[in-house]
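quick one before i forget lol
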Amino acid sequence: MADEQQLCAVRVRARDLVLVRGLWCEVTPLRLDRYPTGGAAVVLAFTARSPLRVPAHRLVRVVRR
């Protein structure tokens, strides 16, 4: 896919496309959260699937829209 890049989850924005289990999903509003152990997490909400919680530092494949 054109202009695909890897970014830390914390840098993802609404309307970006994120690769989740082999499918490109459009991100709707997202929020920052914490794990019980204190680590930072990002909760990504999508138009066509349930939300995904990932560590803020994890690299994800993104296409900017």
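fyi Residues 8 and 62 are 10 Å apart (CA to CA).
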